[in-house]
From TrEMBL:
Organism expressing this protein natively: Thalassospira profundimaris
Protein's name according to its UniProt entry: GntR family transcriptional regulator
Keywords tagged on the record: DNA-binding, Transcription, Transcription regulation
SUPFAM superfamilies: GntR ligand-binding domain-like (SSF48008), Winged helix' DNA-binding domain (SSF46785)
InterPro entries: GntR_C, TF_FadR/GntR_C, Tscrpt_reg_HTH_GntR, WH-like_DNA-bd_sf, WH_DNA-bd_sf
Residues in HTH gntR-type domain copies: 10-77
Presence of the UniProt keyword DNA-binding in the record: yes
MF terms in GO: DNA binding; DNA-binding transcription factor activity
Segments crossing the lipid bilayer: none
Gene3D superfamilies: GntR ligand-binding domain-like (1.20.120.530), Winged helix-like DNA-binding domain superfamily/Winged helix DNA-binding domain (1.10.10.10)
Length: 222
């Protein structure tokens, strides 16, 4: 286990939740890993109460499940379940982008471009640990202008359940160049105010990511 930060802000439960979530999404805690409350409480130097509350929150997000005789474990998804999540992603994210593009301000576009530059650098340096979070942040910043907070909340939850797989897929498939190129194409269409082109590019981007991931997973599970 990696060293944990010293907690100084927000509630202890918030901080335990955030740190555990980050470690699950990064793959530090892989699918099927048993999250022992006593061990986690000892590592963070807190009581079991905030740990239990944090695990319950992560259960609600779909990242953790509680099993008889095992307690909390990091959720495992079947290939069919992952594929279904990508289908939902494509439907909802395309709708969010359709609403967002006409509302994007120069400040919004600058924010998206800034995160895209950081993402590019992470790709070039091979910083795998950052890919998933930067990918989510790129898409999130595009969608914020949609003024659809409930849909965005659903997308964020789905993202939490797929980012650990897409991050591994990019590393295994070597598809980073394609992903980087597709992100720039989507951004340029948004910048030009071309809603239909941006939505079409996004749909193709999500589908190609899903297809590549499914192929990797099926090979790994044969």
């Amino acid at each position: 286990m990696t060293a944990s930060p010293r907690f100084t802000r927000r509630t202890i439960t918030d901080q335990v939740t955030e740190d555990l979530r980050a470690r699950i999404l990064s793959g530090d805690f892989p699918a099927g890993f048993q999250l022992r409350q006593d061990a986690i409480a000892g590592e963070y130097n807190v009581s079991r109460i905030p740990v239990r509350e944090a695990l319950q929150r992560l259960d609600a997000e779909g990242l953790v499940t509680f099993q008889p005789h095992k307690g909390a474990i990091v959720s495992q998804l079947s290939i069919d379940e992952i594929e279904e999540l990508f289908e939902v992603r494509k439907l909802l994210e395309c709708e969010l982008l359709r609403h967002a593009v006409p509302r994007l301000t120069p400040a919004d576009l600058k924010s998206v471009e800034d995160i895209l530059l950081v993402y590019d650098e992470a790709f070039r340096s091979g910083d795998v640990a950052k890919w998933g979070e930067l990918n989510r942040e790129f898409h999130d910043r595009l969608y914020r202008a949609s003024n659809r907070p409930k849909t965005l909340e659903i997308i964020r939850m789905i993202g939490n359940n797929t980012v650990r797989f897409t991050q591994a897929q990019l590393a295994l498939s070597g598809a980073t160049d394609r992903a980087e190129r597709e992100h720039h194409q989507i951004f340029e269409a948004c910048k030009a105010g071309n809603t239909e082109e941006a939505v079409e590019l996004l749909a193709e981007h999500i589908q190609s990511s899903a297809d590549s991931l499914m192929e990797c997973l099926r090979k790994a599970r044969e």
